[in-house]
Amino acid sequence: MITSLRIENFALIDAAEINFNSGFTVITGETGSGKSILLNALNLILGERANFSVIGTNSDKSIVEADLLIKGFGLESFFEENELDYFDTTIVRREINQQGRSRAFINDVPVQLTTLKAFTSQLIHIHSQYNTLELRDTNFQMTVLDVLANTSVQRSLFSELFLAFKNDQNALLKKRELLSESLAQLDYNTFQLNELVELDLDKRNFDSIKQQVEIAENADEIRAAFGELNSAFTADLGTIDQLVHLKSMLLKKSTLSVELKEMYERITTVLIELQDIAETAENIGESFEFDASELVENSKLLDDFNRICQKHNVANQMDLMKIRDELSQSGMSFDQLKIDINQLEENLKSQEIALIESANKLHDARLKAIPAIENQIKSALTELKLVDTELIFELKKENELSSDGFSKLQLLFSPNIGVPAVPVHQAASGGELSRVMLALQSLMSTKIKLRSMLFDEIDTGVSGDVAQKMAMTLKRMGEGMQVIAITHLPQVAAKGGQHLKVMKSVKDGKTTTFVQQLSMTERIEETARLMSGDEINAAALENAKALMN
């Protein structure tokens, strides 16, 4: 329940703190006094879209904060799932600023707006005179039936089964599409894989093969180069002959100078190295041979390798090996895909059997409960002065499964005996719809643990004894939950356990709205004002006392 609501710099409210009691609270105030401001502020707490034009002039932001008593509502798991600290009295806050930004908090921890909405929507429900449009919503109608038929748990379990079934159906469809695409790709992948397998990438080194091919293709030039090298050193008057002559000359004169002796030794060393080079070049040149058939084979292998590298847009052997392994895995993935499809098909068969059984039981339970529900609603409507009115739950069984099982519901309304029942939103007047909704909400409140419900002028369009009956219904609902009603009717105002009045004042040329909790004397006067207008006479005061008693 809401224990307090604090509002700062919001529309005409500079600052207000409103304390709410449990049970039935009424809120009154003259037209234009600012009752809608309270609703708008509360809607912020409920996570609704912010209207930044409501930000007041005292600062660049508005703040709405509420204390919610949540002990005993089993919401601990919500706090755990959202990593929030749980407190029996939880503080929720919403801030909006002139820059168009909005922030939400639960127990001073910033949260997403969706998180705030998910939390507060479990605790507070606002029902305005316009919410009678819910009656034409088939999902709302089915919710009413399931609550009153005590089949909400069955419906929830069925919904989980149905959602899982639909998810698996979608998964099967996607896997079948993937299988179809894979079948088209499989032959091409197999061809590519065979090409790569034939290269024998694990046993062959294509860098080495490339070198062998290059050597074989340039054999004549290589032999010629070694021959030219040998001739340059060994020919008459070649390099070696000249060095031998120099060595002989230096040997004779090495005793004349240390430097000449060093030159002799260095030339001796160079001569030994050049003679070895010449001999090696001669040996290699004479023995250099290649296998022509091996050159043909290696050239073909290298051509295949280069072609496949270009085909896959890669540059080396390692990249080709990765592609080969991926193509090999794709075949395994294809086989796994077929296994997954078969498994999903089997699962869907068993799921469908369970769904059909659950849907049949749910439909039968709903159907069985409808007569008693219709009688309860008739009694509730009779109390609200809709004596001959009937609300009929027309439940039909469909052949196709939906999120509601096999059930298709239409809520029919007949205002008088002998008048054919038609869909409720086509037949009932505004006042009748308000009473129908109040009757339904009243009956539902006895079935589920509601937290706080705010009725915004649900009594519009009614008066007299009907208003009295509606007031008694609201008061009775307040015995099991927190009920807050914004009203213009004295009959409703008189039945509140707590009475708040929204008022406006003008000070220093500025209009502000504030909320005051009325004392018993003030309540009597306010109820009398609702009956007779601003001119309150003794008769009106007596009538107000009588209403309150």
Helix segment tally: 17
The percent range for helix content is 55-70%
The CATH superfamily label of one domain reads P-loop containing nucleotide triphosphate hydrolases
Proportion of strand residues: 15-25%
Average the pLDDT over all residues and give the rounded result.
86
Give the low-confidence spans: none
Q: What is the distance, rounded to the nearest whole angstrom, between the alpha carbons of the first and last residues? A: 27 Å
CATH architecture of one domain: 3-Layer(aba) Sandwich
Walk me through what this model shows.
The chain has 549 residues and is an alpha/beta fold. 56% of the residues lie in helices and 19% in strands. It contains 17 helices and 15 strands. The protein has helices spanning 35-45, 76-81, 113-120, 138-148, 152-198, 206-217, 219-234, 239-253, 258-287, 292-312, 317-383, 424-427, 430-445, 464-477, 490-494, 520-532, 538-548; strands at 2-10, 13-19, 24-28, 61-69, 89-97, 102-106, 109-111, 124-128, 390-402, 405-414, 422-423, 452-456, 482-486, 498-507, 510-517. Strands 2-1-4-5-6-7 form a six-stranded antiparallel β-sheet, covered by helices on one side. Strands 8-12-13-3-14-15 form a six-stranded mixed β-sheet. A three-stranded antiparallel β-sheet has the order 9-10-11. Strand 9 (390-402) and strand 10 form a beta hairpin. Helix 5 (152-198) runs antiparallel to helix 11.
